[in-house]
Amino acid sequence: MIVKGGYGNYGQDLGILMLDTRFPRIPGDIGNATSFPFPVRYKRVLGASPKRVVEEADPALLEPFIAAARELEAEGVKAITTSCGFLALFQRELAAAVDVPLFSSSLLQIPLLYETFGRRGKVGVLTARAASLTERHFRNCGVQGIPLAVAGMDEKPEFTRVFLEKSEPGIIPVLDTAKAQKELCAAASTLAEREPELRFFVLECTNMPPFRKAIQESCGKPVFDIISLAGFIHSGLLAS
Fold first, then answer.
1. Torsion angle in degrees (nearest 10) through CA of 55, 56, 57, 58
2. Is 198 exposed, middle or buried (0-12, 13-18, 19+ CB in 10 A)?
3. Domains, the chain, with CATH or none
4. C-alpha to C-alpha distance for 133 and 74, rounded to whole angstroms
């Protein structure tokens, strides 16, 4: 067997571009390496706060994310994703900047899933902040002409305080998982009740997957997220 060299380490096929955060990342969260059945490699983009990415959609962050993606590619990863679904705004530019597959957001699954579910009904989207999720985010993921029903965590105090970093400055965030789960399940079940044609959910936020099972049970719908997408992409990568 002939094995090609060129990298300092091997076996970390998936690279993850991380926001610059301090909140807890529990198993199931994309920022917790135990969430994956395969090794991953992280790269933090300094200054990329949830406020700048989610609320401000700061275009000045594009170049730092491109630079970080190129670093991950140079370090040998075979695919790249991110720790925030709102980076869908940069999907096309980021994917064009590297020669490995790059999927910025779980929203990229929507067209495939909509076809898989027979092009019937609506797609439920649970997002960290509905007020910031725009048509452009969806368009950059190929989501056009698909009926959507969106619910956000905008008014959910525990989720917003921790994951959108609304705590007092200088205080290390502490997550009450029971409260966060209750808020997520309430948002999903309320949307499902309001939208009887809803077929499945896609979780935009990469902090939501730890609660996927509870969300499924609360709303009675299939649920997909960035972890399910990462597993799908990884399954098709060439062996290291």
1. -150
2. buried
3. 14-105+229-235 (3.40.50.1860), 106-225 (3.40.50.1860)
4. 32
Length of the chain: 240
What is the maximal distance between C-alpha atoms in the chain?
58
Q: In this predicted structure, what is the pLDDT of residue 238?
A: 65
Q: How confident is the model over 145-190, as pLDDT tens digits?
A: 999 999 999 999 999 999 998 876 778 889 999 999 999 999 999 9
What pLDDT was estimated at residue 165? 87
Taking CA atoms, 178 is separated from 69, 143, 159, 214, in Å, by 34, 33, 11, 11
User: What is the sign of the dihedral through the CA atoms of 222, 212, 19 and 78?
Assistant: negative
State CA 138 to chain mean position distance. 13
Report pLDDT digits (tens) over 128-145: 999 999 999 999 999 999
Whose CA is closest to 121, among 220, 188, 196?
A: 196
Scan for tokens 């499902």, then name that residue: 192
Q: Please, which pLDDT band fits residue 1 given cuts at 50, 70 and 90?
A: confident
Question: Do residues 31 and 141 make contact, with C-beta atoms less than 8 angstroms apart?
Answer: no
